[in-house]
Amino acid sequence: MTIMIKIVLACLAIFAGIFAVKFLLFPAVYFIFNMQSGQLKVVEQFTTLMFIGLGYYLYVKYYEKRRPDELTFRASHLFYGAVSGAALISVTSLLLFYLGYYEVVSFQGLEGIPIVGSTILVAAMLEEFLFRGVLFRVIEAHVGTLFSLSFVATLFGLLHLFNENTTVVTAFSVTLLGVFWGGIYVLTRNIWVVGLNHAAWNFSIFSTGIPLSGNEDWRAVAPFESIYNGPLLLTGGEFGPEDSIINIIVLLISVVVIFYFAQKIRLLSALAKIPRRLSWKRRFR
């Protein structure tokens, strides 16, 4: 019951921030200025992100009564988080472009980047606040790291099956992504780092003009117009490169590396809280 109360209150705090921006603050702004420009939409997205962080901060400070260290800004860590996210998915995408399974048709311009880019950033950060900042962290505190990681990653994968153009591969590939981002949070204990990794990953896919997690809508405003052809297991098909077997292999290697370092620096001490029948702690001594 304590777990559920914490999760519900944390989610309410986060969504209260979103509600305040989307239904109170910016409707008033649009009414006063009698306009809905692209620039204002971008400002709205960044304001939404600020209020998401504020809601989480207030929950941690006044309900959990502790300092929210997971919200600490470290410029170098944020930079590495974003660059590594973009670089990792680019291994798959660039290889598929090189092999001819993805092909650039034309350059469409940069006009769509501000609105779509800010939307991608807010969506990725919101998912990380909810899945890693709330669900993973709260469950981990009660039952341990590996159980929490497995449960939240599985839930993350299952919920993405509601996206368009999913296949039998999607549940596994997105669950593996959940393990990957959960692992980054375990290593860094910083929501901004894992959120920027997630956002940079998604933005890299969008910018190439290839479907992003089954979403075809943004391809029309992507900087590049691209097409894909070839075996579904190789290209990822209409879901995008996340379903590619190349990406799955890259993620598996990355997860192994992450948990190797997690073991080395003893960040899995919370395993001691797992019931004996679930515990793997001897493997990490």
Automatic annotation (TrEMBL):
Highest taxon, organism lineage: Bacteria
TM regions (residue ranges): 7-33, 39-59, 79-101, 113-131, 143-162, 168-187, 194-214, 244-262
Coiled-coil segments on the chain, per record: none
Pfam families, per database record: Rce1-like
Alphabetic keyword roster: Membrane, Transmembrane, Transmembrane helix
Ranges of residues in domain CAAX prenyl protease 2/Lysostaphin resistance protein A-like: 114-203
Identification of the protein by name: Type II CAAX endopeptidase family protein
Species the sequence originates in: Psychrosphaera algicola
Lineage: Bacteria, Pseudomonadati, Pseudomonadota, Gammaproteobacteria, Alteromonadales
